[in-house]
Amino acid sequence: MTPQKIRIIGVPMDLGQAQRGVDMGPSAIRYAELSNRLDELGYSVTDAGNIGVPIRDSLPGANVLPSIIKTCEQIYKAGYETCVDNSIPLFLGGDHSIAIGTIGGISNYQRTGVIWVDAHGDYNTPETSKSMNVHGMPLAVLLGKGLPELVNIGSKGAKLQAEDVVLIGLRDLDHHEKNMLKRSGVLVFTMRDIDEIGMHTVTKKSLKHLTHVERLHLSLDMDSIDPVIAPGVGTPVNGGLTIREAHLLMEMIADTKQLKSMDLVEINPILDTLNQTASLAVDLTVSAFGKSIL
Fold first, then answer.
1. Helix or strand or coil: residue 45?
2. Spatial separation of the C-alpha atoms in residues 172 and 221, rounded to whole Å
3. Are 15 and 97 in contact (CB under 8 A)?
4. 26: how many CB neighbours lie within 10 A of its CB?
5. What is the pLDDT of residues 118-129, one digit of tens each?
6. Which among 113, 151, 132 is positioned nearest to 261, based on CA atoms?
7. Active site residues
8. E strand map for the chain
9. Residues whose CB falls within 8 Å of the CB of residue 173, separated by 6 or more in sequence, listed in order
10. In principle, which of 10, 101, 175, 187 could form an S-S bond with 76, CB 3.0–4.6 Å?
11. Is the pTM of this model over 0.90?
12. CB of 236 within 8 A of CB of 227?
């Protein structure tokens, strides 16, 4: 049997937020032996290198938006072409604004259900955001809200439908963002939900909610994990997922055999301890792609 193909695509972008260092995330993940671990599972792995991203300090007047748009256009194309090649695109960020391009290109290839694992909602718009950081806006953009120049990256209009999205692990939302999410139609599971009903039930409900699509995309922000065990992130929030909760989520996604693409974002090696956040990210990724205890 021909092994399934995975194409690793690095996106060292730190333009969507103020904290420096997340552009080194792809290198940290590669250093934690992602390719070898996926090879051991029987995949045919190709590393396509990095998408070119301008250095923030080289941008005139610190105007990052044109560079974010240009980079996400490249990501959109890379994601679409990887799907056409019958390969699984595995994107290594970089901040979470890369999802505007990754999910945009993938959903253009085929309607896709998205499991978005994050401490934050990423559902701000310029009207609701205090920081104006684009990494707090990608989900809203993908659902057609926000700056038109971001919404129209790759193709015009929304790239996702609300019923195709599940958010898991939320615990830090802006006031207006919270109200928008409540009205969005997106299925949301906060940390309180996980505390009350457990990760098994949350994941089971999430996957049942997405049975109308044949393709799943996992967008894993490492700040979803408790910062005690994943300190290398730019926006840590206490009270996050435990190692076993995160692995159970990954393992249950793997059981569906429908995971066809993934983002791994917001790892900041400058803030990490001995690369432990990147190493955990690799552990979780191989769980999502089928590594099991037995």
1. strand
2. 13
3. yes
4. 27
5. 999 999 998 887
6. 113
7. 96, 118, 120, 122, 135, 221, 223, 266
8. 5-11, 44-50, 87-93, 113-117, 165-170, 187-190, 216-221, 259-265
9. 120, 121, 181
10. 101
11. yes
12. yes
Single out the residue of 248, 292, 249, 284 nearest to residue 264, CA to CA. Answer: 284
Domain contains 294: no
- 213-235 pLDDT per residue, tens: 999 999 999 999 999 999 999 99
- Measured CA to CA, the distance from residue 120 to residue 172 in angstroms comes to 5
Instruction: Give the domain range for residue 179.
Output: 5-288
Length, in residues, of the chain: 294
Asked whether the bond before 94 is cis by omega within 30 degrees of 0, the reply is yes
Q: Please, which residues have CB within 8 angstroms of residue 248's CB and are 6 or more apart in sequence? A: 199, 200, 203
How far apart, in whole angstroms, are the C-alpha atoms of residue 253 and residue 31? Answer: 25
Minimal CA–CA distance to 169: which of 233, 100, 90, 261?
Answer: 233
- Give the up-direction half-sphere exposure of residue 274: CA atoms within 13 A in the CB hemisphere: 1
Question: Structurally, how many domains does the chain consist of?
Answer: 1
Distance of alpha carbon 259 from alpha carbon 247, whole angstroms:
15
CATH of the domain at 17: 3.40.800.10
* 293 domain residue, yes or no: no
Distance CA 262, CA 88 (A): 8
Residue 221 is classified by DSSP as E
pLDDT digits 0-9 by tens, 169-195: 999 998 899 999 999 999 999 999 999
